[in-house]
Sequence to fold (599 residues):
Amino acid sequence: MCGIFGIITDNEQVLGTTLVDAARRLAYRGYDSVGCATLTRDGTIDLRKDVGRLDDVSARLDLPAMRGSRGIAQLRWATFGAPSYANAQPHLDSDGDMVGAHNGNVVNNVQLREMFIREGLVVRGTNDGETCVHAVERHFDRNGGRMLEAIRAAYADLEGDYAFVITHRDDHRLFAIKKGSGLVAGIGDGFACVSSDLPSILPLTRRIVRIYDGEIVVLTPHALELYRVEDGAPIHREAEWYDGPVEVAEKEGYPHFMLKEIHQQPTVARELLHLLDRSPHADRFLEAIAACGERPVYLVGCGTSYHACLLGAYYFGQIAGRIAVPILGPQFIEQCGTAVGPDDVGVFVSQSGETKDILNAVKVMRRQGGRVLGVFNVIGSSLMHHSDVYLPLACGYEISVPATKTFVNQAVLFLYLAYRLAGRDVRPLHALPDLLARTLGESEPYARNVAAYLQHWNALNYLGYGVTHAIALEAALKLKEVTYTHCEGMLSSEFKHGPLSVVHDGYPVLFITAPGDEAMMINHVNEVTTRGGHAIAIAAEHPALRANVHDYVPVPVSERDLAPIALTIPAQLIAYHLSVARGTDPDFPRNLSKTLTVD
Ligand code: M6R
Fold:
């Protein structure tokens, strides 16, 4: 949901390459428009921005050549205001003295803009990032040019969740503020920087300062100062040394991050299983679930993470005899918000750990006195801070917007928890990484063939039964996301209750089948094939199932509990290959963002 980066250095230099590199590491957050601003020591502002992807805009506007001692970069995922030059960030104030950029949403954007226009400020677009700049400008003009005070006053005017970075040509400092959106700062030798996320800072420095909501950070080349917005009081916080891996956004020979991340799945699953075996957090997590006794456990997620919750609920029920309620974040608030209480436990699942729909649900659970168990991939995320107990997904950064490896590890984590809740030996789960590796190798050519068949279809269905229901939903989401094709996932036994009417000659229906469900699935396959539909099975080898379908994507034979996780892989590969065949960019599909910090 937009990415911002700001840097201040102790000498004037070519800053463009640093800004573009930082932007590249934030590209997963937004790619509707790109912009950079630099300021030289004499206060000249160079602003270059446009609609489009980073590499195109960078080449067109020669962003790497930009010089200065202060710089700001922004990548936009449009919410307020269509993607356009005027709405691209950074933004200037009325006189062009100040420049700033934001991420997040200012919900009273329209009212503030109208007020600014009435007051005579020069409003050029409709974007709420521009509103942040004018909000500061307005107070700056009134208070005799004190930036820190102007930002504090603007904070009171700006409703919503956001973070922004801003500077004035005559004030040789860089300012940033956090209210609900991610923000982290770093300090190095002769420079300081601030960003929406760690990956853009780590290649520059490992000395990190975390910023919390309601705080302003003031950057100079040799220091970071923190202030509380509420009363302007200084805050003392030591920089911490971040010694995690510097995840460089490299494709490592793969044509796309999505394919690289699909291929990383055996490795990340192995690492997660090792971590869970040794983690005291896993014990505490399980104790918290056990402590809610017979009460249902809520598994709360959105998008792909919700599909993992659906699978998790199945695992909890089937393997551990525990009722779990899979539920979407906003629905948790509406449906259970007043019904849950201090005895309840919710497992809140989010790759980014920043999804607003999830953080809102966490807030409600807290208000009701229930326990918050967090599952996320991004260490240091807001979900981590708001969890009583948490487990990381240990996938490393997932750059591609479609979630792949994080879904697999969410599924692995739920399976592991179900085994532990059931008191079962978890050692058989260590067969999973190898199973995933073999599935990748064996299913790849078949997945390509299926993608070739789907190339000429603009609608299709994925069906799953029992444990593969969640996988069918995830498969459909993945295919829609990266190919812009209408694809619906559902329980195979539901198909006859209406959707069957879409089937006509050649219409593709993919049946994701776990071991033991083949006989049931053969019924559902025939409901489709007798009406002219083209049935494709994704399953371990099964002669009777094979005899009933037109195409088959075979996966290695496995234990029933492990199968749904392996069956995810061919679906990911089909989506990927269809995307490539259609000429869409699987890493950065149109209209989407990796981190959704909006309601
Ligand atoms: O970061 P989260 O897991 O909370 O994100 C939730 C969804 O926005 C996310 O899973 C989305 O559906 C993905 N783009 C799917 O690939």
The mean pLDDT is 94. Residues 538 and 553 are 5 Å apart (CA to CA). Residues 302-305, 350-352, 355, 358, 401-403, 477, 481, 592, 596 surround 5-amino-5-deoxy-1-O-phosphono-D-mannitol (CB under 6 Å). The chain has three domains: 3-250, 254-424, 439-599.
